[in-house]
Amino acid sequence: MDLSAETQVRKADHLRICLDEDVQFRQISSGLERYHFIHCCLPELDLQDIDQTTTFLGKSLSSPLLISSMTGGTDLAKTINFRLAAVAQRYGLAMGVGSQRVAVEDPELVSTFTVRSLAPDILLFANLGAVQLNYGYGLDECRKVVDLLEADALILHLNPVQECVQTKGDTNFRGLLDKIALLCEKLPVPVIAKEVGNGISAIMAQKLITAGVSAIDVAGAGGTSWSKVESERAQDARQQRLGATFTDWGIPTAECIASIRAVTASVPLIASGGLRNGLDAAKAIALGADLAGMAMPFLQAANQSEAAVNELVEVLQAEIAITMLCTGNATLADLKQSVSLQRHE
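The structure corresponding to this sequence follows.
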């Protein structure tokens, strides 16, 4: 089996396993449940006037929701991406696609990612694995995936645990920071550094910001465990055991947000990793995130129908709005600046 075929099979496996199997963290949560809002019984606000609009990387959004990077490279992935893009356009959301490496390897699969015709106005993120910069990829490949998608930014995803668990994973992460810095300098669109579910620490965030990344997606522990996913698709005992061993490896999402905001107030910050509803999203914003990213809830809805995704977005936005009203915050800026979110043990 050639490289592109192997990648396509892996993408199909990932989709199937995420939809059919329990691949959530077992012992580590996102940490958001440790926070609660102080209820405001008389907010002096009208729910209809709650303003969820925001901007990210210079683009206006109707609410702080990101349809996180998930998939591409298969017929089902194309259906899911197209449904998600149509809904993102309808509701003014941001969206990322899954790793486009498979489309670089096999141009026939480009169409499973190209959603811009359905979503001409959205904030759209291209996506490649940062480790591929050590495996023959460079500025040309990064520019290619951005151009193919007509993307507003490029996500470089960081996934050392997942790659190490895979039997044929790409495990050479040496010297990547310098290569990321060069890419940030040369690429004509912003670069976003994103983990895949194990979190980004404050120390690493500072290094990435110094290297020139324009935004950070913490993608913390507490949601889907890609070690568990790899364990489920294992073809040998070694991968199965390694995936199981590292199922609960990572930094909880809430800890990532709080620690990064303690060292930098300015970097655009995306919170993802275990967010499951609008209340989680509001907590992430109150902790200091600018966008709240979700993958699994959108994947499950998009696997059903476009209508199911519409319903999901409407309830997520309603949950955010109710949280804002019941904490006395009319805007997202008010929510960030308020002291209505408190930590408890």
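Residues 4 and 105 are 5 Å apart (CA to CA).
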